[in-house]
Amino acid sequence: MPSPTISKKAKSSIHTDVPWSVLVLDDPVNLMSYVTIILKRVFGYSEERATTLMMEIHTSGRAIVWTGAKERAEFYVQQLHGSQLKSTMEKSV
Q: Which among 59, 58, 67 has a CA at the least distance from the CA of 35?
């Protein structure tokens, strides 16, 4: 008696890491100059870039400060929380 053949279907799933955005939210506690310093320290941004983002946070109430892989976004949010900045992350659209 011949043995039955078992065929396995190969999964054809494409794994794409959806980019995640790190957002910093405006708060009434931190000075604008402090927010600029933290953005420079955490992300390595220039004074001009950090100031532009800080002003967007101040005027709009929030700003996307970085976009990329989920693990890195989690790390950045942790760093920002450690510096007492309100921040969160969300999937980019």
A: 58
